[in-house]
């Protein structure tokens, strides 16, 4: 084994390696380097899951793991003369991640901007004045998320409503935990029946998948509305009885949105519309539209800064007059401060997961798994299992692996895969970007294990939604 490991370090040449190292190496899936990559990935996911107890940021183990996996791939590629293919693969995986990262960066920046303009604090005061109980807030937030997800994307919807859940009851950890879990389930369920509701549905729609009984077009996804609704309602009804009774305490101080808050809300919706236009009409990546929308906020931030009003100090002091105090006691709006406060641990965690899974896919583990499932198990069991797998592997790489196989399935089966991957991520907190984002947003109240307690109920809802689809949409199979 040593003679395999050290030549790459000493020679540094793929050509020399190809000549010096035995060319009859087994496939990487049957080689020690492939086994090691798989073991390291499983260990990293376990460490990320135990963040609540280890207090080790979840991004650290998976980012290191991504590097280890691709280092093993790079070494094996040099030994077998396939370095070009490995480089192309890692660049493709990196491109997919960068698109997702930049999209999330824009959403998080808008969320931070709305928070700085006291939008969520004002909403909390408004909700408190309505006299809604914790259970009323629980249902309101879930329903709003389910309705918004098909239009705003499940991640954006979860982050928007999740921020409101945290703001309404900042000291009630139990409500925040259940409220965020409810929002995650509602976001994933609501995003499953719309082409714009989730990245996975967008991928399938844009692939223009040819099925055995027609094309999976835009309107086909709406056949999943009732199964998705059931997927949301069953856990919500079960959690209803665990939600604390009583009402949130009203704000002691008066709350009001700062100047420009309403216009930033409008700009955020314009940003989403721009992203949809770029993807749906121009057939360009949605992230280009999102970044264009970030420019809307940048220009508006410049306007706020240039028109910021000041009050002079009470004493006629030249130094104080040269550095006037803002009228609200704070500095003018700065968009780059909002970018700096984005949850970078979340973005790095998604990087680690995306690159690690991409590496395992390059090695061939996902292809082997898909081949066994679709060719030996059958389409229905395979699609159900794919949904369960998405709770660990994350829905985007899972759906990419299915599309890479491109099994010859009916529209009903492709919709079953869509429903499974979209809602299966709700089984674990790390199974969807919405869950990962809200774990970071909840100040430690919504965690992997607080979510895990409700996994049996979520699994029951998953099975019920699948059975509903099989019965209700039988004509599509």
Describe the structure.
- It is a single chain.
- The protein has helices at 2-11, 14-20, 32-49, 51-54, 59-80, 83-116, 119-130, 134-152, 154-168, 173-191, 199-207, 225-240, 261-280, 286-306, 318-322, 335-340, 344-363, 365-377, 379-393, 395-405, 411-424, 433-441, 448-452, 455-472, and strands spanning 210-211, 214-215, 310-311, 325-326.
- The chain has a domain at 99-340.
- A hairpin with a 2-residue loop joins strand 1 and strand 2.
- Helix 10 runs antiparallel to helix 21 (411-424).
- The radius of gyration is 25 Å and the shape is globular.
- The longest helix is centred in the first third of the chain and has 34 residues, at 83-116.
- The protein is built from 24 helices and four strands.
- The protein is mostly helical and 477 residues long.
- 72% of the residues lie in helices and 2% in strands.
- A two-stranded antiparallel sheet has the order 1-2. Strands 3-4 form a two-stranded antiparallel sheet.
